Amino acid sequence: MLGYYFNLALRSFRRNKVLTALMVLAIALGIGAAMTTLTVYHVLSGDPLPGKSQTLFYPQIDPRTNQEFRPGEDPPDQLTRLDAEALLKAKRGDRQALMTGGGVAVQPQRADLLPFSADARYTSADFFPMFDVPFLYGSGWNAAADEARARDVVVSRALNEKVFGGGNSVGKTLRLDGTDFRVVGVLDKWRPVPKFYDLNSSRHGYGESEQLFLPFSTSRDLDLARSGNMNCYDNRVEGLKPTDVGAPCVWMQFWVQLDTPQKARDYQAFLENYSDQQRAAGRFQRPNNVQMRDLMGFLRDQKVVPDDVNLQMWLAFGFLLVCLLNTVGLLLAKFMRRSAEIGVRRALGASRGAIFAQCLIEAVSVGLVGGVLGLGLAVLGLWAVRQQPVEHAALAHLDPTMLATTFALAVVASLFAGALPAWRACQVTPAIQLKTQ
């Protein structure tokens, strides 16, 4: 029966080519616009660590003075070096890592390659296993290297190809800011979207990952240049640098892995107890103000999806709705023009349900053709997005999930558009139609 209904739909399309073309075009335009913006939203709002994000938490502590205190205000997004190192030393999580961004001068040994600057991340040993960072060669350093302020470095795959020609460079020497480092690992391709572990290094956190990873303790030992936001909330003691331990400046990110909900609750209690201790010691002045959100909660609060992307998506779906309303009118006109044919079918024994199903199949057929054309328009729209000068533009690509969503949306949209015209068509009274012929 389904094949028969599709056959009737095909015959109807041939009889009303212009009307059918208008309906296909309306659905295609709506689907193309909606899928372009929905794909961008899907890419930017995805889980950067599926299956593990619920075990990663971002603790925040408020060390600020009572100056400009406002009750209910969130704690700073970053930690002081003193607090970050204290939490790292406490080792109360399954894994924990402190970090900040930086930049170093790479001085290759190759005569044909001039020195160049590269983005770096200064962090601790757990960074790599905690974030499931893939390695092409070697591995990260261990906690002993952190303690020893070792001259170890992990390089990105791109930098390894540029400096070492792409081979296994583990054990080789790389000179950074005038100091020799030993390469202990080479990353495979890795670009978390967004770059969740540090949203301070770019406007919305969709930049490339760093080219070099060094122990944080080593970076401070060599006083390497740092980058990223830094906010100082009090006057510093004379001679104390903003990056020194004890400086009243928040500039470090800290992540902790807690594998069970009970461990998360225990860590929350630990943070509150730590804050109480600092207040009792006279270092903290404000009432207890700590937060700890899991990875996805942190990304939602940080609003990593740009506002213009949200607005564009809702405008596109509004445009799709307008297209569907036009399709409803066209389908209604088409089905009502066939009232005589429907009346004959009803007189020959076709039920109202059969007429309703036939009309819906015809609407879905229009939707599927419109979906194919809309898919082409979406691909064209994503290409246009990639030409924009925004940091997330290069990520705008259609994946299998969104490909399936395109056709699902086309079917649902066509069913929505065809429901009312199909219901009106099945209400045709056979006797009246037969009398008029």
TrEMBL record:
It is found in: Cell membrane. It comes from the Bacteria. Residues 315-429 form the ABC3 transporter permease C-terminal domain. Its main location: membrane. One of its GO terms (cellular component) is plasma membrane. It is a multi-pass membrane protein. InterPro entries: ABC3_permease_C, MacB_PCD, Macrolide_Exporter_MacB. GO terms for molecular function: transmembrane transporter activity. Keywords: Cell membrane, Membrane, Transmembrane, Transmembrane helix. The keyword Nucleotidyltransferase does not apply. Residues 20-222 form the MacB-like periplasmic core domain. The chain crosses the membrane at residues 21-44, 313-333, 354-383, 403-423. This is ABC transporter permease. It comes from Agrilutibacter terrestris.
